[in-house]
Amino acid sequence: MQGQLDMEGALTARDRVGIQDFVLLDETTEAAFLSNLKKRFSKDLIYTYIGTLLVSVNPYKELDIYNMKQMDLYMGVNFFELPPHIYALADNAYHTMLTEFNNHFILISGESGAGKTEASKKILQYYAVSCPSTTLLNTVRDKMLMSNPVLEAFGNAKTLKNYNSSRFGKYMDIQFDSQGDAVGGHILNYMLEKSRVVHQNHGERNFHIFYQLVEGGEEDLLHQLGLERDSQHYNYLTQGECAIVSSINDRNDWKTVKNALQIINIDEINTNHLFGTVASVLHLGNVQFDSDSKGHALLNSNNSELRWVSNLLGVDAHRLQEGLTYRKIEAQKDQILSPFTIDHAIYARDALAKAIYGQTFTWLVNRINESIENKWEPVQFFNNKIICDLVEEKHRGIISILDEECLRPGDVTDLTFLERLEEKMGNHPHFVTHKLADKMTRKTLERGDFRLLHYAGEVTYCVVATQFKSSLLKLTEILMAKEAWYIRCLKSNESKQPGQFDEALIRHQVKYLGLMEHLRVRRAGFAYRRKFEVFLKRYKPLCPATWPHWRGVPADGVEVLVQHLGYLPDEYKMGRFIKGYMTRGQAKSTDNSEYLAFVRQNYLNRLKGNLPKTVLDKTTWQTPPAVLTETSEILRKLYYRLMVRKYVRGITPQKKAQFQLKLLTSSIFKAKKDSYPQSVAQPFVDTRISEQDINMKVLQMIRNEHIKYSVPVIKYDRNGFKPRPRQLILTKTAAYVIEEAKIKQKVLYTSLNGISVSNLTDGMIVFHITCEDRKQKGDLVIQCDHLFESLTKLAVIANKQNAIKVVQGSIKIEIQAGKESAVDFSTGQEPMVYKAKNGHLMVVR
């Protein structure tokens, strides 16, 4: 007992550096937040609270704060009784779960290298020690703990920012019984970075397991798998040029993984198959291709690597070779083999490697789940064969139809696949789509959905990006059903050095993790966020009036309970967003904005509940009884007139002017210039250069003329076509080309014969100017990013709507009287503007 008191005293003294809960800061500014974080970090205090949210800063060194004494200290202690620690959050989540009998989750977020993986390990280790212990429960906890090194070996890799970066998303369920015993678990993985198997950026590695197998595998095992103890020998392991890293001990990690596989009950046969599959990916990456005289891919004469892949996967070598070098097309009973080029063969090889590794990872996660899950008694269930046939039946199931669509020539989309399903399965009693559904069911289906009627209920699928969306939606549904605890992990510096606090980097992370916003919300009112029902259920035994059952409104029961316990009115407040409620009559601020938004949303929800079942819109009109047909038609016309009148009256003078300019632009450029459609949605502005950005000398020289519009342009010299940045200013009578404080050219609108642009997507404009005027220098060639806006403004100001021409191919220009050249236009892969050999200005788009 004395030792525990000494430990508490030491922790309390140590924690006096800074503020341990940001809610207690005197100022809620970003500077004060960072200052407190830095002050605590300098003393190795890496944890700080924002209410019940835990902020963790990666120290990039080992700290003696995760030992058994620390765990004992935080077990069963009130959340704020001891200094901030990840053990405190884990313990309170655990005990809140037990007392309130509901599910909880801990969400750990932050960028790569911020310490998310380590944080999850510390939580698991804490539960392994703090939960009740029996032989059976110890086995479950050991399996949960040892699943980590296995998942890290197969799902983590070295990146530029992190030597042990998780390249997949992981959600782990720990299942407890009513006594708080850990009885099982489940792991959900999503978005594995399979592309890393075949390609790594410079300075990065493939998944750890490949290097662990090559560097740490026993000689007999390597011989059995056909591998050499040299990572440089394998194409998939050398692209990042850092196969060997001094800070990563692949041999020791290999031993840990082997031991972990035994603990999670993966037997020797399956372990050998697992490593054989991993080895097959390495051999597959070394398969090389040559080409014949027609450019078709052929396997390299030395195809020993392919034989190893065949042996390790148990696949016929000839079929494997055929699959890598040919595309097979099946048309009814005929099969056509179309040879690959080398690029296609390499793509097929890499795609196969990614698929093998992805399926292996999924299998591994499933085996871990089988090992750690809670064993349930078997129950009788409905024979689901009809649904299995609907999905998997050869030539007739959904999977077969999908395969056919993927091989079909022509424009194949998600919706054509759905149409094919409707054609083939329209009469199936367990299949329905938006098109096939009745009127009521159709309201619950999107046009891209189909629904299978399973024995346990209806399941809706979307043909668009289903695999990606379903994994995230599944995770979201899981989290939404549970009470949340949050850990925000921050990187202290990019170089992974201990003791370095990069303020700019941390400021950036504080912003995008929303920590300042979270702090303001927590300070806006009372932090207790339980529902009245939950609070009353938990504490009702403390008051005779509420025990054993409260028959009234839960909020009233809570009021009776706290009054019975003797709390003063200023010690608690009922309701949500209390501070917002108290300041609701004041101007909108950070104190009341969230409360006002909440009230508004509730009001709209109440309105929504009172709306009629069918509401008129712009496209539908209810069919009336026959006797009211004439009246309905009169009302319909009046209704549409009213809609138009309301819309027109809502158009401001500014909008009207905008529409008029857009109509003029349409009359000049629509169906003539390729970039016109992209410009329609872009609103025009009054000017692109403010008067403050125009030189004072220029303003004085044109002070008698009102500036109507100005825009930055690139002007091309008449001799040599050298590009020069300029300003184009339009006044009532002339257009001015400005270079800083000089007027380089003044083009009177009366001297402007015409304006030419190309039909492509470039921004080139040619002003054709009367060369007999000695004050003019010839035609003006400019490039403008706001071509449609500039020329529309010029057309209105100079009344030159009919002078603008859209030209194909080439625009002739007059450099000076009697001397001509041209601007030529063509399409290409990269846009560029240059002087061609024929002396013309060449514009490529």
TrEMBL record:
It comes from the Eukaryota. Residues 673-845 form the TH1 domain. Pfam families: Myosin_head (PF00063), Myosin_TH1 (PF06017). Keywords: Actin-binding, ATP-binding, Motor protein, Myosin, Nucleotide-binding. One of its GO terms (cellular component) is plasma membrane. PROSITE patterns: MYOSIN_MOTOR (PS51456), TH1 (PS51757). SMART domains: MYSc (SM00242). GO terms for molecular function: actin filament binding; ATP binding; microfilament motor activity. The keyword Nucleotide-binding applies. ATP binds at residues 110-117. InterPro entries: Kinesin_motor_dom_sf, Myosin_head_motor_dom-like, Myosin_TH1, P-loop_NTPase. GO terms for biological process: actin filament organization; actin filament-based movement; endocytosis. Residues 17-463, 464-594 form the Myosin motor domain. Residues 472-494 are annotated as: Actin-binding. Belongs to the TRAFAC class myosin-kinesin ATPase superfamily. Myosin family. This is Myosin motor domain-containing protein.
